[in-house]
Amino acid sequence: MASLLKVDNELKAKVDSFREQITSEAENLVASFFPLKLLELNSFLKEPILNVEDLKEIHSEITVRVPDPILFTNSHHALDLQNAKKRKLEDAAGEENCRDAKAETKLVGAPELMMKSNPRLVDLIERVKPEIRTLIEKCNTVKMWVQLLIPRIEDGNNFGVSIQISRYYITRAKLVSKVAKYPHVEDYRITVSEIDEKEYISLRLIVSELRNQYVTLHDMILKNFEKIKKPRNSNAESLY
């Protein structure tokens, strides 16, 4: 029985208080927050920004000057121009290899070389991201509430912690390399910020999930302490 396990009364009171807090918050989410959020998102779906009839309306102009065509008057002149172009490219390649750090810094910071992102999509993404985060966090609270309502281990719970750390550093390193190689493409810079935000949210949820696992394990162990302390064949089978 749970009474066989000595539990500090003060700690037990704090755990019970936490469980009551989760229960109260989850019930409020189901009874009030979820319906209100559903109506809010339904109104969002009716806004003009999400009801564009012609997708060309959301296209973003890329102001990159197209070089003028080269007109050839005769074959000899064309050959001379091709040779001149080849020498020019070879000279440019040599200068590229000799470019110093100061020139690189100037290129990165030159605003006229920056290719802007699609402003309408950026605004929409920035509006949708908080909604995604809110949904994940609120569902996590309800999940915790449901888990605490399950009375016994054999009802379907397990002791496994299904948390996997993403390959954040290698992914970010590749993106930063893209920024260094293509400093004038703004989307690569935005992607670096996005991967940082994603990792932050993941880490926050991982910490939350770790906390929830401790609570769940504590709850299940207390409810099954007699089976753990004095296991029998039938009880042992129900624990795994």
From TrEMBL:
Protein name (Swiss-Prot/TrEMBL): Proteasome activator complex subunit 1
GO CC terms in record: cytoplasm; nucleoplasm; proteasome activator complex
Self-association and partners: Heterodimer of PSME1 and PSME2, which forms a hexameric ring. PSME1 can form homoheptamers.
InterPro entries in alphabetical order: PA28_C, PA28_C_sf, PA28_N_sf, Proteasome_activ_PA28, Proteasome_activ_PA28_N, Proteasome_activ_sf
Entry keywords, A to Z: Acetylation, Proteasome
Protein family per UniProt: Belongs to the PA28 family.
General function of this protein: Implicated in immunoproteasome assembly and required for efficient antigen processing. The PA28 activator complex enhances the generation of class I binding peptides by altering the cleavage pattern of the proteasome.
Gene Ontology MF terms in the entry: endopeptidase activator activity
Domain Proteasome activator PA28 C-terminal: from-to ranges: 164-237
Top-level lineage group: Eukaryota
All residue ranges annotated as the Proteasome activator PA28 N-terminal domain in the record: 9-69
A GO biological-process term: regulation of G1/S transition of mitotic cell cycle
Pfam families: PA28_C, PA28_N
